[in-house]
Amino acid sequence: MSTWHIPEPLLARYLTGGLPVPHVMSIEAHLAACPSCRADVPVDPDWLAHSWAGIDAAIDRPPWPERALARLGVRPHVARLLTATPALSRAWLLAVIAVLAFGTAAAHLAGDTPGVLLAFLVGAPVLPLAGVALAYGPGVDRAYEVQAATPLAGSRLLLLRGGAVLVTAAALTGLAAPFLPGPAGLGAAWLLPALALTLACLAIGTRLPLPLAAGGLTLGWVVVVLGTQRVDRYLLFAPGAQAGWACAVPLLALVVYARRRRFDPGSPSATPRFRSMR
């Protein structure tokens, strides 16, 4: 036990919040080790009990997205990792909803409906790319180094989070698609291109950082779509193109699976983007 005790004037300033932060930290370190000085700090028992009850509730009761995933059969630790995905933050989700709402409203208000519908079809497949680029990695995830030491690190966690982002973006886009005017069936023509582009992003991400892969694919996608306008406005969404997208999806999935170890932290073949700092 310390032989030094907090003087009353100093304790009074501490209780009223009139001390600088370094002094507060020093006093609180002393209070943790000195029962005599702790006894001089007035505490409201009801307030203390209420505070501890709130802390217990916050720790023991996970947020509603995590509880919803658990009810769907997702294991608790996987549900926690999925809900902690940086790309699934409120800001990203609200941004996606705002873009889709704007596109749907513009399709109804604009005079050239096919042009607005085309803009929606061009933008919808690349929405998941932004989320996948921010799903995992030392540059975007504050808990990356902690998670890199877990058995789920590397390809498993990236694919889990990437899949969650793709499903979320596809679900939100799917909700907006039926409200789009235009030719029947085109409202869902973005789905296979979105899946193919997402898998291509993951495949390229075994060589390059994911944000760079996503940005390059987005730029390439827009350039190709604009380049086909003189031939057919909806060339990349026509039945023949859809068959091509359907063939590309399993091939890209095989590439991602074959190169999955390049996402594993600490692997000799891992890219610097995902290498663990062990």
Automatic annotation (TrEMBL):
What Pfam families does this protein's entry cite? zf-HC2
Q: Carries keyword Transmembrane? A: yes
Putative zinc-finger domain location is 10-38
Tell me which domain of life the UniProt entry assigns to the organism this sequence originates from. Answer: Bacteria
Kindly list the residue ranges recorded as spanning the membrane.
91-110, 116-137, 158-180, 186-205, 212-228, 234-257
Q: Which InterPro entries match?
A: Anti_sigma_zinc_sf, Znf_put
Is Transcription regulation found in the keyword set?
Answer: yes
User: Which keywords fit this entry according to its UniProt record?
Assistant: Membrane, Transcription, Transcription regulation, Transmembrane, Transmembrane helix
This chain's protein is named Putative zinc-finger domain-containing protein
UniProt organism field: Embleya scabrispora
